[in-house]
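Final report, results section. Input specification for complex C-07:
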Amino acid sequence: MSTRDATASAAAREEVLGRLRQAHAAAPPGDWPYAQLTRDYREPEERTAAGLDRSARLELLVDRLVDYKAEVRECAPAEVAATVRARLDARGARRVGVAAGLPEREALTAGDGVEWLVESADDPLPVDVLDGVDAVVTGSAVAVALTGTIVLDASADQGRRAFTLVPDHHVCVVREADVVHGVGEALRRLDTTRPLTWVSGPSATSDIELDRVEGVHGPRVLDVVVVRDS
Amino acid sequence: MTVSPTRAGTVDLGMPGLPPVAPREGFLRADRPFPAAARDALADPQLRRNLGHATRTIRGKRAAVVGELPHWEELREAGRQLKTHTMASLENYLVQLEQAVTARGGVVHWARDAAEANRIVTDLVRAEGADEVVKVKSMATQEIGLNEALEAAGITATETDLAELIVQLGHDRPSHILVPAIHRNRTEIRDIFLAEMGDAPADLTDEPAALAAAARQHLRRKFLSAKVAISGANFAVAEDGTLAVVESEGNGRMCLTLPETLITVMGIEKVVPRAEDLEVFLQLLPRSSTGERMNPYTSMWTGVTPGDGPQRFHLVLLDNGRSRVLADEHGRDALNCIRCSACLNVCPVYERAGGHAYGSVYPGPIGAVLSPQLTGVEDNASLPYASSLCGACYDACPVKIDIPSMLVHLRAEHVEEHRRQSRGPDAESVAMRLASWVMSHPRRWAVAARAGRLGRLLRGRRGTIGALPGPVIGSWTGARDLPAPPQQTFRDWWRGQQEDA
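Structure output:
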């Protein structure tokens, strides 16, 4: 910002803040201390969450994912690489990006018939390369059973945001330990200062006659591999 | 969160003691009154069919997903209290937000009104050396007419939300907060794409999936090559500077992730105190707006993240009349709106008249209370009357904004304003004064009531009185039938009963 812009901006700032003081002087706001705001939704939320055991919670997640048109496969920890590979083969993916921090990366890339490109913070794949891959494989930070939502937080097993955005097919590994019941629980596990992407099904639009159609700009195919603790 | 108490450079706090309303730039004011615009809309059967179909669909979906949450009412109350609390400390939270965004590598700008916001954004785009930008759907930038301002500066802004793209290609105006092309059906959309898109496939059908695919292909190059993106914000967290955009298609993610520079224009009322508060709004918003448990994509980012996403981030905080709304204790809850559009979808007036009839970019019940407050009621005088006060909007609102009471308040304010401005008494007030004189004396009333029976002469075939000429009677009977007076007045009947006994 040039000095003149900075001066103009400071004047605008003072005036907007002054107007807010002026508004509150004209119509004093009531007393609403933050600590006393009611959160009566939490108790029933927690009760519902506590009523579901781990298996029921996973079932709910799968049900909600399928309802929003994600393809879901469940497997044991030892079966992740094979399950992911089966999903890639089912779609004929031959050029595939994988996040460097995915624990199953080595097992996965040992298989042949696929050209593997590894995404890492030190060596991110350029956007035009991402535009040419058939699919990407990542982990996830948290999953919300109640809404069928997977949250990505750009950790090493997920890659930066563009990695899971530009390619048309996303294979996402969700682990049982990362599955929570509700939105609040998910937020408490996340660091909101990281770049977060909350994904619920493949990209969709309701813009034509308010009918939901899957597949616009984001990945049109979302494959979720849910890993049950053995 | 302390605020420096300096008052230097603040506005005059003397009379009239209110912040200014939004100046004329932008799209908050109608070209003509609601009744005239609504009459045109009602004469368009295709529009009514499109609106009826779309609002019916969304009402059903919303009811189903709201019904899934047993604690919905508790969430609404929490949302209401959080918003009310935030508006009561808005100055503090904005300063806190500014500090957090700045600390994480963003640049915060303050805009008093639409013209100032447009100038800030135009200068920022020019400073990047860009002559085109991609845009995420945003009500704030619609409100200030940013696309038009950029165009005047030689900068092409491409709307990337499917519905906004339909509106832009159709040289049209948005008619709904969530689905701005709700007034168009699939066949009309196909025709717009074929005529205006340039690269639409010649054999494009009107299947929604085919239309979405055409939009994907049309916009993909733009996303991958854009230098600058412009977005709005659904929420901004004061404590840590996190911005959130809630969307469906992935166009938001494209804009928020791929360009080098991101400019976000946000109304000052969008701030929330803490990240944990998002647990309330991320449950209320998608279920109320698209009728989904969760929208397909929500992006959150904080300032600049090295190596991930735009490396330059500007946040423009927009007032444009909002501080004025805050100064009205009966109207300020309109600032609590999270732009879900549930009130539009349940409103019998919106369902028939459509969004264009409201003139402002904010249509429907919330627009009928927000627009007149942002501009001053005289500039949107017909909007507070664009409602039957049925109360469906209040029931649907996820943050419990009492829109019907606010409409009544604004009607009273309009009448007051009208009285202040008009010189002599108008026909209505003369009639009311005459009625008061008649009704304040029993004998005068008895004579008048008996004389009223003469009204039976005006009866139509259905036993009611239709449209009549004259200033007051004319405007009253123009819109509704009057029952014909009975043959006998109550007083005469009563006297008869007493004599018979």
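Chain A has two domains: 1-37, 53-227. Chain A touches chain B through 86 residues (CB under 8 Å). This concludes the modelling results for the funded period.
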